[in-house]
Design goal:
This protein is mainly alpha-helical. Helices cover 54% and strands 9% of the residues. The chain contains 15 helices and nine strands.
Length: 432
Amino acid sequence: MSTAPYDPALPARVRLFAVVFALLAALALPAGALQTNDDEPAGPSQEELDQMFAPLALYPDELLSQVLMASTYPLELVEAARFAKANPDLEGDALTKALEEKDWDPSVKSLVNFPDVLKSLDDQLEWTRKIGDAFLADQKAVLDTVQKLRSKAKEAGNLESTEEMTVTTEPSAESETKEIIVIESAKPDVVYVPVYDPVVVYGTWWWPAYPPPVYYRPPYYRPGIFVTFGVGFAMGAAWGYAWGGCSWRRSSVNINVNRNVNINANIDRNRYKTQVGGGRGESTWQHDPKHRKGVEYKDRATAKKFEGKSRADAQRARESYRGRANADRESLSRARSEGRIDSQGRSRERADRGDRSSSTRSRSQGSNERSRDRSGSRSNERSKSRSSTRSSGRSGAFTGHRGSHSSSRASSRGKASRSRSGGRAARGGRGR
């Protein structure tokens, strides 16, 4: 029985063939099959959507739409929450005038009139960002999730009309058997915020690995009651900027600046009309990147759509900066260890030149100081000598002057004495 001769090059050819085959197979894959973490799908899973929107799904449509829009501007929400905390007693016309001075999006201004809602969004900022990211990525998926959660609450017997809100149903455009659940305020000029436990109100939760969060419960929350309400909030200050509503059939949010035109006269609606619907004041909501104020978008697709930066890009930029900084530090440390630079980061040659220059300056300064000392000493000696000479001269002049006066006075006295003697002798001769 004959066998083929052993070919040592065969294994290498086999390995090369395997590599080429793998490359060709990779090129034949669909475009999305080789996704990386940086190119992850824009939207979250349905489990995450149900978990995320459970605390919001039972809000009245008007309030829900404002939360959805405002959540895409997380930094402005933080600023608004600080403003509300610093001005707890500001309300009505005074609140509206103060809000007119802010450059926030109208949806953010609207939420200032709902301090409990605003506090919840601010306290749980990561949750708020996820809401905004999901809404920017797929509005239809978000609104469908809200309808699903409302149906669950209704099936559990925990969603019905009350004195504070009205619950109605409409046929869906997608299916005759599917209905749309609409929640509205019972009073046209007041909005009540429902408070409920999402773990209970929807019945048995269907995603054990994704339980609904329970964030903020205001003081008026009453355990054991499925849905409770606090104090109603007037729509004037809250809704005068841009009335929001959910268009369930079109899976979008609508804005109407003109809806409550007679409620609050302190709002310059003409300014907002120019921003909505080409001056009509009514349109489908569109995200405004300028109110994002530099906050990164979740993924590249959304960032590209709004000409912003994704979180992955921002993270790479930060890592690149840290990498350059680390490289600079390592280079500096290596140069120090090799003696090429000193402890202050100067090159050794420059440091030596600086030390020599400093030493030269020190010697020059010392020489100058000694020269000034010697010059000062000689100057002082000359000054003392001149002072002594002037003093001696003045003393001699004064003494000579005083001597001449004394001689003059003595001569005068001698003349006077001789004159008196001569007089007496004359009188004596006449008497004889």
